[in-house]
Specification:
Largest sheet: 4 strands, antiparallel
Number of helices: 2
Radius of gyration: 27 Å
Strand content: 15-25%
Helix content: 40-55%
Length: about 150
């Protein structure tokens, strides 16, 4: 009578191979999910930062109607030289203000746009990923009423 041990050993090896392949697929799926989660977290930070700056612009337009972006730049501790045309804030990977340009991971750009409507100020607030080829993460246009244009 022949022994069934070699057949049983083959079955166990095939089962081990199937489980190893399933584990490899699961690990790949987990790593991809982690990567997507990190991208979503970065985009969420960018959206929140753009919204905060847009609300600051609208608030400054209500209180200081003449040089809105200059007022916003001074409130955010940005370089206020010619800031009414726009300004840039630099952030590191932890979303805190970057001390040096070398540690910059993200940048927030506020640029005044030319509005075709008299009495309407417009600016674009954009957060870009400086580490990945200056890819824009989020952008929002902000408009405010300039009362001085009607006076």
């Amino acid at each position: 009578m022949r022994s069934k041990a070699p057949l049983m050993l083959m079955e166990q090896m095939v089962m081990l191979l199937v489980f190893a392949l399933a584990a490899a697929l699961c690990l790949r799926a987990f790593f991809k999910a982690d990567e997507i989660s990190k991208q979503s977290e970065v985009r969420d930070h960018a959206v929140m930062l753009c919204q905060n700056v847009a609300e600051t612009i609208k608030d400054s337009a209500e209180t200081n109607n003449q040089l809105v972006l200059s007022a916003v730049a001074s409130r955010l501790d940005a370089d206020a030289r010619d800031a009414d045309m726009g300004f840039t804030l630099l952030y590191n990977a932890a979303w805190t203000r970057a001390e040096t340009p070398a540690e910059t991971a993200y940048s927030l750009d506020v640029v005044r746009l030319n509005s075709e409507v008299p009495g309407l100020g417009t600016a674009r607030v954009t957060v870009t990923d400086s580490e990945n080829g200056a890819e824009p993460l989020f952008s929002v246009d902000v408009s405010w009423q300039e009362v001085s244009a009607y006076a």
